[in-house]
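Let's practice the habit of predicting before peeking. Look at the sequence and jot down your guess about where helices and strands might fall. Then scroll down.
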Amino acid sequence: MTQIRETVPLEEIDLSDPDAFVERVPHEWFRTLRREAPVFFNPEPDGPGFWVVSRYEDIREVHRRWEIYSSEIGGTSLEDLEPDQIEARKSMIDLDPPRHDEIRRLIKGRFSPRSVKEWEDQVREVAREVIEAALPKGEFDFVREISSEIPMRVFADILGVPQEERRYIIEIGDHLLGNQDPEFARPPERPEHRLLPFSSPAALELFRIGRALAAERRKNPKDDIITQMAFGGLTQREFDVNFVLLATAGNETTRHTITHGLLALIENPDQLERLRRDPSLYPSAAEEMLRWATPVHHFRRTTTQETELAGTKIPAGAKVTTWFTSGNRDETVFERADTFDVGREPSRHRGHMTFGPGGKHFCLGAHLARMEVRVTFEELIPRLRSVELAGPVDRLRSNFFNGIKRMPVRVEAA
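Done guessing? Here is the structure:
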């Protein structure tokens, strides 16, 4: 077994390297940063370098001061883009107010607690159907058969995408969001592809699907997000990039959380047994899975002026990255932060930051994702007599997504 060090020398830390995340998340790096360099400058081999914010409260401060730490002027990914690329890719998450707020208002009603509650019976029905189809196989890839299938079936209905397109959309999303992984990367084929999300020609396929659906809704409106967007006064570019955002983010983050959640239960059989004995723990277990998984490692902001954070001066125009993966393991906030605890007591004011630490960009789909994770395990665990890994866990090469590509499991149904 690999010996995990408590801390490491600062000079060993390089968060620009996706290879550092292939085997596992380097939590000892973040532990070192929180203790020794909470606002740390990370050089880049092919870029200007970026600041790493690793402590919970400092991450919260960055996300609440959008006028100083902008999502818009540099985008939200580590990649350095030209002005025309930034402009072409501006989805909702890459905007500051007021335009961010206008687009968010257009669709946020679909994700309110009341709206999400109305979806619970349908989510439960989908979860049962998917789980009951998978378990008789005995041995299967949990990602393909269950954790990717449930959220995409649900989101296809909410978004207004035909169910027969859902598997194709999952595959396109893998190419886009897994673009640092050689298995999924699709490099630009023509010069104009540099303007596409992730510079990937795969985005054109989602543009095509979204535009066809919007054209149909303008003729035959329905009660779904596509209809709201089609009549929402968006430009074609705004429609395209926000359709890509919703079609991919609605599946990827929930899928990875469900996968990591089951992996954590397999690796911590005492916690699986607690859930079996006490079904009242499912809500807290879902929150702990979200904290534990942290499917999005970080987001980038760009400073609009010189500022100071945790005693460190940061110049104007600097890349600043907030690492939710680190904030969710901050020892000053979470007792026994490196322990997976399905009964972890929630805090009203200092909960996990998997959906963001609050502020303008708090995840629109947070209520839906919470419910999907909880319902999935409420339906899965009682149907399992046993579950174990049937092979190695295949992780995504990415310093942005904490993704699992494949997780073979062997199950015995109850």
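How did you do? The chain has a mean pLDDT of 93.
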